[in-house]
Write a structure and sequence with these properties.
By secondary structure, the protein is an alpha/beta fold. The chain has a single domain, classed as P-loop containing nucleotide triphosphate hydrolases (Rossmann fold). The protein is 55% helix and 12% strand. The chain has a 5-stranded parallel β-sheet with strand order 2-3-1-4-5, with helices on both faces. Helix 5 packs across helix 6. The radius of gyration is 16 Å and the shape is globular.
Length: 179
């Protein structure tokens, strides 16, 4: 099976859904940010600080191309991955891209809850966070909308919702692995 690339804004559930689908199907799961951190022995934040955004995006592109050559893998891309270089075109030709479409309200709740783990939003007030999400999402939608498939990922708060969403994903998009 060619790779499945999960794309979407931070907090949309790429890593959560990817891990759940992996556990239900046995397909390998790769979180691209974690993969980069393992290869470069530095956090994404450190790489940004040391190399700047351009330097990080060069690394990200190279690692995307590396994992995109793997078979039977689901890849959770960083929120910005499809927005740089020719990444979205490359993913569309080397696998299946799936945009995890999540409402601004759900993104706000999820990111508010976990903002301390995300340097980009850690110091924002609630109003600033909502405004940041709306603006950033609007800028990225032209890239996200180029995915082969759009999949709603609003219902992933409880463990049962995560499981139901993963099963729906598998049954709709991975028919060979239907559960």
């Amino acid at each position: 099976m060619r790779p499945i690339f999960l794309i979407g804004y931070m907090g949309c559930g790429k890593s959560t859904l990817g891990r759940m689908v992996s556990s239900l199907t046995g397909i390998s799961f790769i979180d691209l940010d974690n993969y980069i951190e393992g290869r470069y022995h530095a956090s994404v934040s450190q790489l940004f600080a040391e190399r700047g955004e351009r330097g990080f995006r060069d690394i990200e592109r190279a690692m995307l191309h590396e994992v995109g050559e793997f078979e039977d893998v689901i890849v959770a891309c960083g929120g910005g991955t499809p927005c740089f270089f020719d990444n979205i075109e490359w993913m569309n030709t080397h696998g299946k891209t799936v945009f995890l479409d999540t409402s601004v309200d759900k993104l706000f709740v999820r990111l508010k809850r976990g903002r301390h783990k995300r340097p980009l939003i850690a110091d924002k007030t609630d109003d600033e966070l909502r405004e940041f999400i709306v603006k950033a999402l609007a800028g990225r939608m032209p890239h996200y909308n180029r995915a082969a498939v759009t999949f709603k990922s609003d219902l992933m708060e409880s463990e049962s919702e995560k499981l139901d969403t993963a099963r729906r994903f598998i049954n709709e998009l991975m028919t060979d692995y239907a559960v």
